[in-house]
Amino acid sequence: MNSQQSVAQLQNKVEECLVDISQQIDSSFSRIDAFLDQVIVVPQLSVAHKHVNYVLPVVQLQPFIQTLANSIIQQVKPIINQTIHQQIKQNQLQLTQSQSKQIQQQDQQQHSITNNLNPFTYNLLYNNSIQQNEYCCAIAINKDNTIVLAGCENKIKVFEFKQEQLKQTQLLSEHQNTIITLNFMKKQNQFISGDVGGLIITWSMNQNSQWIFQQQLKEHSKCINCLVINNNEDLMISGSEDNKIKFWQKQNQWLCSQTITDHTHYVFGLSLNDSQNRVISSGRDKLILIIERSSQDSKWNIIQKISVQVEGSRLCFINDNVFTFQPDCQEQMDVYEMSSTNKQYSKTKQIAVKCGQSCHYYFPQQYIKQKCLLVNKNGQYVNLIRKNQNADFITQQSIDFGHQYVYGQMSEDGNYLITWDYESKQIQIRKYQQQ
């Protein structure tokens, strides 16, 4: 049923309601008439005053009251009807405007999706690359593409990203070990970093627009391989080479609220679903864990374990019902879908992708909803895969870096891909170009 039919049906219901209200008003006034007809007027009254009886003249009230009632009815009823009509017309107008706005938004969204499904390529901005000789395993871009972070060994370099140029503005030196994960907050001027030693540090921006150390979290004993933050930014989940997944709650400070120890080897990858009530993890033990938050006590419980033939470090929710998983150095990416009957995930298809001889396991998968685009590093390639309107995954572009040591991130809007690789020893910027 389209929006115009819905509006027409609603208008018909409103008219029916109006007729019903008018009938009720008429019935009410009829009852008033009947009541007035039953009013008993005393024909004669006498008043005693100083032992003298005075007889008052008979007053004929009935015609006067009836005339008054009719006058009230004649004047009030049109006012009530007019008020009801005006209110209904106003509601109809508001409803129509709301429906029109909704249709317009849907058209714009559909137009945007259609445009974003056109062929594309990411072109290297050669003149905008900057030399970076230290090993750089982690890159993060803030929500409005104005700040870029690079984990350069045990230092964090902060860059202003302006007019597609990178300019370093700050150097942060709190970490003693190589930095592996960097995650920007979206609602606040904060970010989180994790290193090889298992240390997680939270950072915030002060009034002088300088990043300052805020809190250290040291409950993992080995490398932080992966870290995700929920949309409310009050939950953080970390995966480590100590085989543990830790859940951190934000109160006044971040506190570890739960630890899952079902992986028997390194935890490589983590991803949260759209509804924020499920997280998936991958590990060197060739397991994918499906972990769900209980609606009763908010505890996270494993609801499914999937054994895979080849270990993989990258996986990503596409939506609540679908996620992708990349087995290391395989020429296909696996797609898992949830059954509507038993609510379990199973592999339903494989997508052809390019790979290489070996693959280093940082550079997490990303799904860019705005462009229906999956960023999948595999071996020496970064595969850019489009999900079309038929829910098919098609590789649109594969960038060959010639070796496995490639790290980076795509901006949230999908306009920029920023990477560092060992061969060029450069932080490179690639820009989205629709064909």
Automatic annotation (TrEMBL):
<feature type="repeat" description="WD">
    <location>
        <begin position="217"/>
        <end position="249"/>
    </location>
</feature>
<dbReference type="InterPro" id="IPR001680">
    <property type="entry name" value="WD40_rpt"/>
</dbReference>
<dbReference type="GO" id="GO:0016226">
    <property type="term" value="P:iron-sulfur cluster assembly"/>
</dbReference>
<keyword id="KW-0853">WD repeat</keyword>
<protein>
    <recommendedName>
        <fullName>WD40-repeat-containing domain</fullName>
    </recommendedName>
</protein>
<dbReference type="GO" id="GO:0097361">
    <property type="term" value="C:cytosolic [4Fe-4S] assembly targeting complex"/>
</dbReference>
<dbReference type="Pfam" id="PF00400">
    <property type="entry name" value="WD40"/>
</dbReference>
